Amino acid sequence: MFDGKRNGDLTPLYSHNIKKLREKRQLTQKQLAELGGISESAMRSYELGDRKPKKEVLERIAMALGVRSEYLSAPEFGPSMEFFYVLLENDELYGHTITEINDRPAITGGLVAVGVTFDGFLGDWSKMKKKLDAKEITREEYQNWKQTYDPGYWVNDSDGKSLWTGK
User: Which of 51, 69, 79, 159 could disulfide-link to 62, CB 3.0 to 4.6 Å?
Assistant: First the structure.
């Protein structure tokens, strides 16, 4: 289904995202490697797509970059049929339901984890997209929200702040 490569590019999506964020944060590979507790050669291999980081390493890199590890590891779907099959194959697992809203098909429900629902996620996304469209937030703020999306149920520090945003 998904071979881990970006459309038109031979580099895996995680590699592209690590490099893009590292450059945005104005870090060298060496600096990011130090922040992530890995070797510079390993970091170079991850960015080139020669090696795939283990989950715990990807989590450290994500923390160093200030994003969710899921943002770095999220698959990129090629043909729309790949996305459709993800929904079809996971409907029972996550409890999604197809229904109609205003005479249009819609996906609703779906307990994902610890009280986070698909509906809740879509509602959060809709609010942020409306803020962007109304120019209440910048495109960069919207992108940062996407990279750190946290419904607040399971990643907050003991002080109640998100590990990624500090808010």
Answer: 69
